[in-house]
């Protein structure tokens, strides 16, 4: 069961050129077997905290974060070609050395590309809320997924989420508070203020314009009992 649908979005000429010319430099192909602990040090040529963003859209906020935190290494995972092409072009235009791109379903990529405890931070901003009840099984934030995600995040690492769809916000809160490996940094039953590292996104501005309230969640990885 996938949490996304590949839409036939138009790839612009600039995005197509980026996909062809820049992927070999900034893209990371999915390996056949899980990588070893030194994989990302070799990819980046440096050490530092490793952040994964799942579903970066067109990549504007991810580019801003990578530029603002040069000491942090960022990996963005996305399935839609226009977004991947736009992010590759942005990396090149800004001369960023601390950002890499994976074009794959995160369910497949997570166990192969991220060794246990290798991630310092995971970001999931404005995922598809799948509002119809019959589609709730497609939502990314599910008990099995957050349990699997915890295996790849170090103890003390964080999970940042945001949505402008209130029913999904409540869903995410319930799922994560029931997960023994995650602790709500804002306290039980509470949402967080927007964390300073998260820029305002295009989806956020669109939601606010529609009168939606944006909810942020910040959870810390803890030792499961």
Descriptive key words:
225 residues, globular, alpha/beta, 36% helix, 7-stranded mixed beta sheet
How are the secondary structure elements laid out?
Blueprint: H1 13-21, H2 23-26, H3 39-44, E1 50-54, H4 60-68, E2 73-78, H5 81-94, E3 99-103, H6 106-113, E4 119-125, H7 143-152, E5 153-163, H8 166-177, E6 182-184, H9 202-209, E7 215-221
Parallel strand pairs: 1-2, 1-4, 2-3, 4-5
Antiparallel strand pairs: 5-7, 6-7
Helix pairs in contact: 1-5, 4-5
Structure in words:
The protein has 225 residues and is of the alpha/beta class. The two termini are 29 Å apart. Strands 3-2-1-4-5-7-6 form a seven-stranded mixed β-sheet, with helices on both faces. The protein has nine helices and seven strands. The chain is globular, with a radius of gyration of 17 Å.
């Amino acid at each position: 069961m996938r949490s996304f649908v590949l839409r036939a979005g138009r790839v612009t000429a600039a995005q197509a050129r980026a996909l062809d010319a820049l992927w070999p430099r900034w893209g990371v192909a999915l390996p056949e077997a899980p990588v070893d602990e030194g994989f990302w040090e070799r990819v980046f040529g440096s050490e530092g905290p490793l952040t994964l963003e799942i579903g970066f859209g067109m990549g504007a906020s991810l580019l801003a974060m990578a530029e603002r935190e040069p000491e942090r290494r960022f990996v963005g995972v996305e399935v839609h070609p226009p977004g991947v092409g736009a992010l590759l072009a942005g990396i090149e235009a800004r001369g960023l050395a601390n950002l890499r791109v994976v074009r794959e379903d995160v369910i497949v990529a997570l166990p192969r590309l991220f060794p246990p405890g290798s991630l310092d931070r995971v970001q999931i901003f404005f995922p598809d809320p799948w509002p119809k009840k019959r589609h709730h099984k497609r939502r990314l934030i599910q008990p099995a997924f957050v349990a699997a995600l915890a295996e790849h995040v170090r103890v003390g690492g964080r999970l940042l989420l945001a949505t402008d769809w209130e029913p999904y916000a409540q869903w995410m809160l319930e799922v994560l508070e029931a997960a023994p490996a995650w602790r709500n940094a804002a306290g039980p039953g509470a949402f967080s203020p927007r964390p300073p590292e998260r820029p305002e996104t295009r989806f956020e501005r669109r939601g606010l314009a529609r009168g939606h309230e944006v909810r942020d969640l910040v959870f810390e990885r803890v030792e499961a009992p």
